[in-house]
Amino acid sequence: MFELFTLKDYIILALCALTIGGNKAGLRGINIIIIPVFASYFGGKTSASVVLPLLILGDIFSVINYRKSVKWSYLKQLLPSTLLGLTAGMFLGRALPDRTFILFMASFVLICLILMVYKEFASRQITLPDHWLAHGAAGFTGGFSTMVGNAAGPIMSLYLLSMNLPKVVFIGTGAVFFFTVNLLKVPVHAFVWGSMTWETLKVSLSLGPFVLLGFFLGLKLVRIMPERPFRIFIILGTLVGTIKLFF
């Protein structure tokens, strides 16, 4: 698999790995752009399996950095329904051919983009009721979307933002949530779907250093970068990539 890449391909994938690291450092939402890029190189399930170890690597550093800023009560409310969402996504992914899986993946990315645009331009802040149904719906949707396409970031970001968490608590709670669900996805990719192989792991390993570089660069950019122009750039870039997946 790795031998088929040109230098241009590897540079593109390395930039995507940098983006994953930046997302885990706190630049929330930016890694949604990598989903259509990786899918265009590897297909649906295989691309998710290549990306998963990179996400976990970024999660480890994110948890270490923000471990003192976790709101555990929200995780306890989310995880039961998240497990149900992961299970539903596992069975759906096993049943679908890869082309249909890519269409599901693209659909979830598109939904996430709509949520990101709404959050960006909404005149009032989104608020969710502090009720078990709201927590359950967010957890199930997040679990299902992360299993089908690693696309739960904007959904969970909207949920945590609606809880009016301080910025550092928002990042820390999200870090532990994604670290947990990404670890749970490993046996599904490896043993149920059979999409995680030594070949995919070799690609992930080769891109791992760029995740670390992106994480440390992201820590600096979080403090100095104007957020809104950057988020709009990510939204537009992801929209182009997602349209490409549909066709």
Describe this structure in words.
The chain is mainly α. The protein has one domain. It has ten helices and no strands. The protein has helices spanning 7-25, 34-42, 44-66, 72-95, 98-121, 132-149, 153-162, 167-192, 198-224, 227-246. Helix 1 crosses helix 9. It is globular and about 50 Å long. It starts with 6 loop residues before the first helix and ends with a helix. The mean pLDDT is 81.
Labels describing this entry:
single chain, 247 residues, mainly alpha, globular
Mean pLDDT: 81
Order of helices and strands: HHHHHHHHHH
Structural domains: how many: 1
Structural class: mainly alpha
Summarize the structure.
By secondary structure, this protein is mainly alpha-helical.
Helix-strand blueprint:
Elements: H1 7-25, H2 34-42, H3 44-66, H4 72-95, H5 98-121, H6 132-149, H7 153-162, H8 167-192, H9 198-224, H10 227-246
Helix pairs in contact: 1-3, 1-9, 2-3, 2-10, 3-8, 3-9, 4-6, 4-8, 5-7, 5-10, 6-7
